[in-house]
Sequence to fold (530 residues):
Amino acid sequence: MSSHFDETTVASVLSSTYEKFGDKPALLSEDHWFTFAEVAELARGLAVELTLKGVHPGDRVVGYLHNGVPARLLDHAILGFQFVRVALSARLHPSEVAAIAVDAGASVVVCSPSVEDQVREALAVVGSSAEVSVLTGSLTELARLRAAAQLNIVPAPGPVKQNEIVMLMYSSGTTGQPKGVVVTNETWLAQMSNALDNLPTISPRDVVVLGAPMAHFGGSIALDCMMQGASTVIVDPFEPGGLLNAIELHGGTIVPLVPTLLSRLLSSMEARPEAVSTVRAMPYGGSPTQADVLMRATRLLPDALVQFYGLAEALAPLAVLSSEDHREAVIELEANPADSARWLAHLQSAGRWVDGVEYRESEDGELQVRSSTVMPQYWNCPVRADGWFATGDFGYTDDEGYLQLLGRRTDTIISGGFNVQPREVEQVIEQMDQIAEVAVVGLPDERWGEGVHAFVVIDPHASARTRETLTQAIREECLDHIASYKKPVGVHILEVLPRNSFGKVDRATIRALFQTPATSDNRTTAEGRR
Fold:
């Protein structure tokens, strides 16, 4: 199954982890380190409490918690005792949580006290029978869990098939309502194996400092490392200074991030390079990252950055841009500016395909993959027959084996009968001075059906520039690099780009704010809006 573990279920991997690393520090709670044995005890106590609430193996348990020790303990209780983990972002609205609880047929929703009443009300509105349970991580609660762990009402994990469900991962819903992605023992262990194969060797000497959302990519990487004996320090809320303090204080070696957090952290890291001197790996993934951010981060941490590409339906990593890839691209960009297009393409690619991943392109260029990390089905949907999954991403593998992503199927702009992939346009604009962030979106246009519109955040350190001048400069830059029909017909300056609970640019919100049809002959720049 894997070079990292012999077990065939997530529960058995956890059991082996507790036995192997029992007295070693596992999880920091304020100023106290829980050992792996203590995590096992607290997780068992929490599993007992879930059992007393009527939860049985195979039942779905929703976790709606901020980053913190309670959320990680809940993961251990659910995965270690054969319940089904439904971990949700704390940024979701209680009504969204309730809708997912209904779809999953959840038995319990575990939340923090601050949202307990709202969750109860939202569940009542949708007619869910899920019980609400509060988890705080307080000393009183921990004492109660330790006492509950002594009750002999939860059987030890027994034989479980590899194809049995361990998680439902709800997609971000960019194509409509979020759908539950079925993750089995086999799927998750394959993800773990691929992730660990593409990180430095993880051991009990490693310290994961986690500031990225635990319900998504960062939490998955941290859990993978924990099963190799690494200890975990959780920082919430994310704040660059606080994260750097934690890395420096605890000698953090693994720091999983999403691109937006990497961008926010970068200036602070440059000002305090000594704080990240112990970092061995900084895996990131989830959305495109500006070349300038990657170049600056790679100069600071030449051996640490590694990008993982994947989706909820096809767990990362499907493709990997290694630290060697980052370093080589930056060195060549600085040494050979005449060949910059090639090395920028490398740096902004999703990397090379992982061994064992089959891939192909549909006639219109959509990527399809088949792998042991691809979901068997969506929740409450028929099992997929041939194993191939259409990712919704447009892209291609270039002559050097790098995966070049062009954009999502749902983001494709059809302007005057031509297809425009937003990422092609964004990559041109984000290379310009004074541009901090950019999102390209199609909006109704009386002449072209859809017009290409660029929504930009100006670098706060850049010199002032009039909107008219910026608009013209962006169009000229696009005309120099891409087809004329891809240039923006409108440029809009925003203070921030709206993002969803996954940290990805929320294009639907942008469309809703700017959806009034415009003629392409009236190409004015919009006022700055949030």
The chain has 16 helices and 24 strands. The longest helix spans residues 36-52. The longest strand covers residues 435-445.
